Amino acid sequence: MSSVSRAVPKVLIAVIVASLLPLSLTGCTRYRVRREMHDGNAAYKAEQYDKAIRHYESVVKMAPNRDDAWLNMAYSYRALYRPGSEHPKDVSYADKGLEAFRKYMQLRPDDDGARQYYLEFCQSALRYDDAIALFEEDLRKKPNDAQRIRALASLYIKKKDVDNAMKLWRRWTQVDPQNPESHYTIGVASFDRSYKSQFLSADERRAIIKEGMEALGKALEIRPDYFDALAYMNLLYRERAKLLASEGDLVAAQEDIATADRYQKKALDVRRAQIKAEKAG
Question: Which residue from 117, 127, 161, 244 could staple onto 249, CB 3.0 to 4.6 Å apart?
Fold first, then answer.
């Protein structure tokens, strides 16, 4: 046999061995991933969350797309976090836990349960910007989703950002114009802004009251027996009466008080009728 013919089997063996090495390493990695996940889950069930996190971190280093490891890691950080705490350790738990949730949601964007848990974590950690960023991303995908618009507005209110909340509520009236609640919400917010804000100019207060009255008027066009809208229309007329009185227009102020009284009476009549109907039913 020639030297060439004797060399061929050796080359083939080398190629075969080289090709098997990645498979062997992959099998070893898979085993290690399963082992780490098993140990992490056992630690989690035993409420040893620090230990569980170490195992889950090992998993995602080997298998970054292992979504259950990211999710369980997020839950572990959430379990360690003390709501409202500003201690550096808790700040770190919140940072890492929310990041783990985001990693999971990138892999499983349709998991609404995890998204809800992420939002609850954001709120307990007072991380409203993180929650807002998630909803703004959602709205870019579904710009006419009234439920998401409302949820985002609520987050802005918790952040005490009334201006952005008002923009979203106005947007809600555009995407859901026949829903009286969308208009009612603007009316309530307008009353709150006028009643609670001490440093508004007269023109600013007048514009706020006007917007609220127009919104409540639309709500009552859709649902004439809307008790809450009637009650807040009463309050907004009283707000405008105070403004007019401060400007010396006492006649107009008294007219607004009389109108407020009529809305108040109508609201009470509606409520009595509702109570009567409930008792009859």
Answer: 244
Q: What angle do CA 255, 257, 259 make, to 5 degrees?
A: 70
Cα–Cα dist 148/175, whole Å? 12
- Domain map (residue ranges) of the chain: 28-126, 177-281
CB distance 158 to 128 below 8 Å: yes
> What pLDDT digit, counting tens, does each position of 144-173 carry?
999 989 999 999 999 999 999 999 999 999
Which pLDDT tens digit goes with each residue over 186-212? 999 999 999 999 899 999 999 999 999
Whole-angstrom Cα distance, residue 232 to residue 198? 19
Dihedral of CA 239/244/246/251: which sign? negative
Interval 52-86: pLDDT, tens: 999 999 999 999 999 999 999 999 999 999 998 89
Least confident interval from 92-101, 121-130, 175-184: 121-130
Indicate the fold that domain 28-126 takes in CATH. Answer: 1.25.40
In CATH terms, is domain 177-281 a member of 1.10.286? no
pTM (global) more than 0.70: yes
What are the C-alpha distances in Å from 230 to residues 185, 195, 215, 222, 262? 13, 17, 12, 12, 9
Fold match, 28-126 / 177-281: yes
For the chain, helix (H) and strand (E) counts, in that order, are 12, 0
